[in-house]
Amino acid sequence: MPTDSPLHIYEKAMLLILKDEEGIVGVSHCDLALAGAILSELFLDERLTVEGEKNLVRVKDASGTGDALLDECLELIERASTARPLQKCLTEIAALSELKHRIARGLCRRGILREDEGKVLLFFTRRIYPEVDPGPEDALVAELTEAIFTDTDEVSPHVAALIALGNGVGLLNGTFPRKDLRQRRERLEAIARGDVGTVSQAAAAAREAIEAAMLVCVIVPAIIT
Question: Mean pLDDT of all residues in the chain?
């Protein structure tokens, strides 16, 4: 993939998830958030459809997307013997081996992040991904700022998907002060519902994928507790 090609939704989500200087994950359940972003993108690209009261996911277009991770997720859904509920597809994608590291390394290849090692409790190391080119994230934050903190109707489906994810799983908390986000709660909810920006069947399916991600994020901690 060309390093100057547009970022995917899941790559934008990764930039919001990582703390810029430390290069570490700053969002709980980040794999579920990333899986929600991947499913959203496949729905918005009209590769998937969701049907019936059980929200069964079916492949609409199995042709290559040009992106290895999206293709892998599409194949994962297609090769299932029966159509599966949205939440099942979400958790399977979230369970892909080293999902967040694969996405972060892709951003390293683009020259946006760099891969390094950080110390934990002086004895252990972990992979970290500090930001080296703030330009793409700055542009993303500018788009999000306009969408959230103005009353514009010009909100792209990709930005709306990120805001819906952010509103549900805390993806925006590391980027904007929580007080400011609380003051724009009605606006955030309107975008998440699809009342602002492009309204389409694909966008509605993407919102359902995001709602599934948010539901799983609520259920998993409750089960563990």
Answer: 83
